[in-house]
Amino acid sequence: MGEKVDSIVDHPMFKPHIASVAMTYELAQDPKYYDLMTAESHLTGERINRFTHIHQSTQEIMTKVRMLRLMGQKTGTCFQRCVGFDALNTLYAVTYDMDEKLGTDYHQRFKKYLRRVQGEDLMVAGAMTDTKGDRGRRPHKQDDPDLYLHVVEKRDEGIIVKGAKNHITGAVNSHEIIALPTRAMAEEDKDYAVTFATPVDAEGITLVLGRQTNDTRRLDGEIDPGNTRYAILGGEALIIYDDVFVPRERIFMCGEHAFTGPLVQIFSSHHRVNYGGCKVGVADVVIGATKRIAEVNGVDGAYHIRDKLSEMVHLAETCWACSLTCAHEGLRTPSGACVVDPLLANVVKLNVTRFAYEWMRLAQDIAGGAIITLPSERDYNHPIIGKYMEKYYSTKKDIPTETRIRLFRLIENMAVGAGLPEALHGAGSPATLKIMIERSIDIEEKKALAETIAGIREDKHFQNIWGMDEGEYFKEFRENRRITK
Ligand code: SF4
Ligand code: FE
After folding, report:
1. Shortest-distance Cα residue to atom 6 of ligand 1
2. Best mutation site among 50, 78, 172, 280 for ligand 1, i.e. most ligand atoms within 8 A of its Cβ?
3. 77: CA distance to ligand 1 center in Å?
4. Residues with a CB atom less than 6 Å from ligand 1
5. Whole-number Å distance between alpha carbons of 299 and 277
6. pLDDT digits (tens, 9 = 90+) for 275-305
7. Based on CB atoms within 10 Å of each CB, which residue in 126, 308, 377, 378 is the most buried?
8. Considering only CA atoms, which of 155, 113, 131 is closest in space to residue 254?
9. Using CA atoms, how far apart are residues 429 and 352, in angstroms rounded to an integer?
10. Tens digits of residue pLDDT in 136-176
11. Which of these, 84, 82, 74, lies nearest to 19 by C-alpha position?
């Protein structure tokens, strides 16, 4: 908002974002959550924060999804640390493949970097989305070459990069930022095929915090923000790289454009599966708030209210089930790191783009219009007006009016705020998800199934959609592609 901020920890606009991330550290210290929040590093054998861990089995990806739901329940918002977590897991797999195929030394470099991240328990922001300019043109065809982040100079000791990354969750309060290409790059775009890590305050980096619905309410008091401790979203920022120098040991891809496609696919799959964890944790909070406001309003016994609450639970648990299955059906990459099932990852996220709107619509429906018409906290604290509010917003003797006001504000925060467009666009917008779903399936095999059943095709053998007979498929499932639990 036009102000240069020197110390984010002392600034009220940043405190709720920092508090959300702090929960990822706080719960990791709690013995109750030891198994969920921490893991054993495969590099050092040390116990580390799970947000810095490389998934060693599909079971561990399921544990990650469980951890994200817990985090959503504890904060009621985005806790930001997953993007960097997914970037670490993606780079572990992709740098290994690059070294195998090209003889580079990216994987060793990356492992050294990862050791530090794990050892110091650093928060890493993942910076993927470029500003993109004209969406109809590839990076090198843009009028302004900086509309995608790119290498402007190569030196023996490192590279100079220029451009920007947009909507970057948690960037302002991270320790490190990993920049990744936003799309698959062709040969002509190879200067844009660049991946590297910088400290958040590297010379030449400027961060501009985004505005979000009702964000300045946190300057007004405690009740009006709705979520009393944490921010509405993840403190998304525009990161400007103005001729930033990146030393060699922090570069994990530079020009290897053929690996940008797999990188984007692995990263986006990892990130998409998260939404059936974090958003479902947030849904748990909103379902609780909705049930409570129904009780406070005296309508909780009505059949249609109970039916709507069950519907909210059904929608949330559907996303949850899909995420767990997506993790369960994951694969082990040659690096040893496990990844999720790419088709199901897109299905999870597509469900969240729709179902989150529906469960929030039901929360709005049950809570009533006061979530958008309630007078302010200042009026409630006013010596004259406050008494009227106390009287006219009361429902029953045993329920303090303030309880009702706080519930309205919490539901407003969650069901009307910026969380919904985030559920739509974060980790990939619906059209992208549908394209990935189309690419992930073998429609010809499905046609063959139908033709066999309809008697058009004379194929008597059982064929499944993977195009193998049952025996072969399960053999591959056990021995090569999937992890035995
Ligand atoms: Fe993590 Fe969810 Fe926030 Fe993405 S939206 S960073 S997955 S909490
Ligand atoms: Fe997000």
Report:
1. 80
2. 78
3. 8
4. 78-80, 82-83, 169, 234, 274, 278, 426
5. 30
6. 999 999 999 999 999 999 999 999 999 999 9
7. 126
8. 155
9. 11
10. 999 999 999 999 999 999 999 999 999 999 999 999 999 99
11. 74
Joined together, the tokens standing for residue 475 give 């053999």
CA of 421 to the centre of ligand 2 (A): 10
> Using one digit for the tens of pLDDT, what is the confidence trace for 405-449?
999 999 999 999 889 999 999 999 999 999 999 988 888 888 988
Ligand 1 atom closest to the CA of 72, numbered from 1:
8
Q: pLDDT tens for residues 77-133?
A: 999 999 999 999 999 999 999 999 999 999 999 999 999 999 999 999 999 999 999
Closest CA to 127 of 81, 54, 178, 176: 178
Q: What angle do CA 189, 203, 52 make, to 5 degrees?
A: 75
Q: What is the pLDDT of residues 395-417, one digit of tens each?
A: 999 999 999 999 999 999 999 98
Q: How far is CA 390 from CA 39, 393, 395, 409, in A?
A: 49, 6, 10, 16
Q: Do 416 and 213 meet the contact criterion of CB atoms below 8 Å apart? A: yes
Q: Whose CA is nearest to atom 8 of ligand 1?
A: 78
Cα-based angle 199, 200, 201 (whole degrees, multiple of 5): 90
Pocket test for ligand 1, best of 23, 167, 275, 278 (most atoms within 8 A of CB): 278
- Tell whether the model's pLDDT for residue 460 goes beyond 70: no
